[in-house]
Each structure stands twice: as C-alpha cells, then as structure tokens.
Amino acid sequence: xxxxxxxxxxxxxxxxxxxxxxxxxxxxxxxxxxxxxxxxxxxxxxxxxxxxxxxxxxxxxxxxxxxxxxxxxxxxxxxxxxxxxxxxxxxxxxxxxxxxxxxxxxxxxxxxxxxxxxxxxxxxxxxxxxxxxxxxxxxxxxxxxxxxxxx
Length: 151
What we know:
By secondary structure, the chain is mainly β. 13% of the residues lie in helices and 42% in strands. The strands form two sheets. Strands 3, 4, 5, 6, 7, 8 and 9 form a seven-stranded antiparallel sheet that branches. A hairpin with a 4-residue loop joins strand 7 (119-124) and strand 8 (129-131). The longest helix is centred in the middle third of the chain and has 12 residues, at 63-74. The model has no long low-confidence stretch (mean pLDDT 88).
C-alpha cells in the first residue's frame, strides 16, 4: 500500500493530469512487503483511424491487480512489457530493496494454517522465490500455480 500527502502533490499536477489523475512527487510505502511494477502500453485514439500507444508504468500493492492487468493483456486491450516484483531487504537477504523480473505467482498453505492455499509466493526469472511475509518457500505446503508471466 502506498501513502501520499498533500504536501507532495506536484505543482504541475493540473497540467499533467489525464482523466482526473493527480501527479505526486513522492509516495510512501505503508508496510515493507513485496510490491509490483508493471510497464505496459495502452492504446489511445489519436484521430479518425490512428491509434497511439501510451507508455505507462504503474506500481501495484497487490498481485490481484497485476493479474487483472495481465487479463487485459490477454484480451489485447493493453500490451504488457514487463512485470517486476520489488522486495524489501529483510525478505531478499540483501538488506535493501531489490527489483527483479517476475516469472510466476504461486498460492500455498502457510505451515500453521489448514485449509485452502492462502499464502502468496513470487518466483523471479532467476528462480528465486519470495513470500509476502517471509515464510521460506520450501516450508509452504501444497503450492498451486496462480499464473505464469512469459513476458
């Protein structure tokens, strides 16, 4: 989740606003958990038969929002270029935030929870697996593939 403050609203926001968007100079992460950055191209009408592709980069706090954008990609409504997972240092072992290409998302059971899979596990292009709250991937039970990204 991202927090913004009125103090960080860009003075150029009124000029840069598209469809009611607000431009911010800064946003704060509410909690240190993985988040996602997606680069995609969105068609924008530019004349009678001309369509321009608007390059967009968005940050998402939850994987289901990334998954919804990938569904739009599958329908041909947008063209996704890259999906990245951003992990805090206490999860990735580096002591600092790290951004890596996302390959797949799995759902699995936390060791102490019974029932359907509830824990998310994010796999990078390099095969490294991170979980949302730090449970080692090998301790999660019954992993089920949620989606794979072959971008």
